[in-house]
Inverse folding.
DNA sequence: GCATCATATAGAAAAATGTCAATATATTTT
DNA sequence: AAAATATATTGACATTTTTCTATATGATGC
């Protein structure tokens, strides 16, 4: 995995508002309007953060009518964990 | 773990130069001057990144005479892994 | 003590990121 | 079709981060 992609993945976790969003999604899928009620930013700012979280692969959005439902991506989380493990494992000597 | 601390931990992994530094340390402890040879930044910039990595707990510095030897902190890495796991595990229903 | 080497700190400039107001798009409802 | 609702995009501004130059600190060797 290249450095640029690794950085993009972990950008999901290096902003306090995004961490709050991820924590909210631990209890299950939520639509953007529900998330908006719970974090103290405007709607365009939330939309911006959701894009970064989706680009990182940590969150997925599911469109249904006029709503977008967001949830934590099990697959994305696994990739992040693997990436972290690979990055921090010492080389065999 | 609070959001501010979580963000500080993952800041270690969201800059391309810091990821390069971590990768260099996978082969074992290295002094700052050795790292400086391998990444394309000035000495004060390297020093700045090393501070962020140390604050995140991912890297530790060991002073020996005029050198500082940096290495990956097994403990810090474990904490980061736990933090990531906790953050991304769905709540029990 | 003075010169040298390795690293850290201070301060400024440049680049990236987070934020908001305004507006666009797409869907549903009336 | 028009109004209302949910979300995305645009563009501007503020803050934060990254980077540099210059300088300071601290250790070693003469």
């Amino acid at each position: 995995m290249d450095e640029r992609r690794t950085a993009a993945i972990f950008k999901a976790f290096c902003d306090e508002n995004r961490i709050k969003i991820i924590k909210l999604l631990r209890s299950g899928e939520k639509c953007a309007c529900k998330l908006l009620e719970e974090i103290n930013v405007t709607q365009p700012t939330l939309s911006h953060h959701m894009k970064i979280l989706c680009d990182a692969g940590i969150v997925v959005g599911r469109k249904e009518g006029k709503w977008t439902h967001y949830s934590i991506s099990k697959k994305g989380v696994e990739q992040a964990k693997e990436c972290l493990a690979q990055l921090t494992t010492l080389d065999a000597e």
Remarks:
- Strands of chain B lie at 30-31, 59-64, 67-72.
- The interface with chain A takes residues 3-4, 6-7, 9-16, 19-20, 22-23, 26-28, 58, 72, 77, 80-81, 84-85, 87-91, 93 of chain B (CB under 8 Å).
